[in-house]
């Protein structure tokens, strides 16, 4: 193995000159290929000879004959130049039509219910050889799971990202009320009196019944009655169909379950803060062709799904 002193004396131009001389075995032709004058190439060859303490090439007639040392080191130098060329070569444009593999996305169940179906349908149309993997994700574990390679990106209400992550805005998630009109027997929009006097069902993975709704009500000197808490949004429709109760949930999932289960949607009678839904991905994937394509596809699908469902939210211009 060469020591550091030798490595410092040899630059890429010298290695390239050696490679071309090995191929051409003629100084004039090699200089022409390298866009150098013969004196410049001769100077480079002299530096190589002095550094490696070998003639490397000897003149035979009008051509050059490599020495045993040159023949011995040529394959390694060719491999090194090939590695460098591959590393700096412009990336091949990603072609979804011929790509074979999987895309992975992390979402909580409310966003998954609203967007996963349209996403996989669109993906299959554009990339027949692709497979979509949905990974259950919570915003608390999103960054760790991203670093572990669990998915290409996460969609959630993310915390401040690490320096090696990118948090891109998607939309501000509003909340609406959803209920079974056959059970609650109220017409939309619900009044504040309707809202406060009704029973409520909340959704919490951790089992917490209090939400930002209760915080807003408390500031107004009001309270609501939470009669049940479920861990997943999929449990809401059966609960609401079984009793006169209201669930105040993100509009995207509310529109989805209302359409599927014949439920009513109402604007909340109190002003609730919107949550910023963002996309979290690794900074190293920022310019990767495959990753860029998949992120753009997701944004397009979300925009179309929000519009088709009648949601009031719109995609951020920065998405």
From TrEMBL:
Entry keyword annotation includes Transcription: yes
Keyword Transcription regulation on entry: yes
Key words of the record: Activator, DNA-binding, Nodulation, Transcription, Transcription regulation
CDD domains recorded: PBP2_DntR_like_2
InterPro entries: LysR-type_TF, LysR_HTH_N, LysR_subst-bd, WH-like_DNA-bd_sf, WH_DNA-bd_sf
Family under the similarity heading: Belongs to the LysR transcriptional regulatory family.
Protein name: DNA-binding transcriptional regulator, LysR family
Annotated coiled-coil segments of the chain: none
Highest taxon listed in the record's lineage: Bacteria
GO molecular function, one term: DNA-binding transcription factor activity
Domain HTH lysR-type: 10-67
Gene for this chain: nodD2_2
């Amino acid at each position: 193995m060469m020591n550091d002193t030798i490595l410092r004396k040899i630059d890429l131009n010298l290695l390239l000159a050696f490679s071309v001389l090995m191929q051409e075995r003629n100084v004039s032709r090699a200089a022409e290929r390298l866009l150098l004058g013969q004196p410049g190439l001769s100077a480079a060859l002299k530096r190589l000879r002095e550094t490696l303490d070998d003639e490397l090439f000897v003149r035979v007639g009008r051509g050059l004959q490599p020495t045993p040392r040159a023949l011995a080191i040529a394959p390694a130098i060719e491999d090194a130049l090939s590695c460098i060329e591959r590393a700096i070569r412009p990336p091949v444009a990603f072609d979804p039509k011929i790509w074979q593999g999987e895309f992975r996305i992390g979402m909580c169940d409310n966003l998954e219910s609203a967007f996963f179906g349209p996403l996989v349908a669109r993906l299959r149309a554009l990339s027949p050889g692709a497979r979509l993997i949905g990974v259950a994700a919570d915003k608390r574990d999103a960054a760790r799971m991203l670093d572990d390679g669990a998915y290409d990106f996460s969609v959630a209400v993310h915390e401040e990202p690490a320096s090696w992550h990118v948090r891109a805005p998607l939309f501000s998630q509003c909340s609406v009320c959803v209920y079974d009109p056959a059970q609650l027997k109220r017409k939309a929009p619900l009044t504040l009196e309707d809202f406060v006097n009704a029973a409520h069902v909340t959704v919490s993975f951790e089992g917490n019944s209090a939400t930002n709704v209760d915080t807003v009500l408390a500031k107004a000197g009001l309270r609501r009655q939470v009669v049940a808490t479920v861990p997943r949004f999929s449990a809401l429709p059966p609960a609401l169909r079984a009793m006169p109760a209201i669930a105040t949930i993100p509009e995207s999932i509310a529109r989805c379950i209302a359409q599927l289960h014949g439920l009513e949607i109402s604007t909340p009678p109190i002003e609730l803060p919107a949550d910023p839904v963002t996309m979290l991905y690794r900074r190293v994937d920022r310019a990767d062709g495959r990753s860029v394509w998949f992120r753009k596809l997701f944004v397009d699908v979300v925009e179309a799904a929000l519009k088709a469902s009648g949601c009031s939210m719109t995609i951020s211009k920065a998405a």
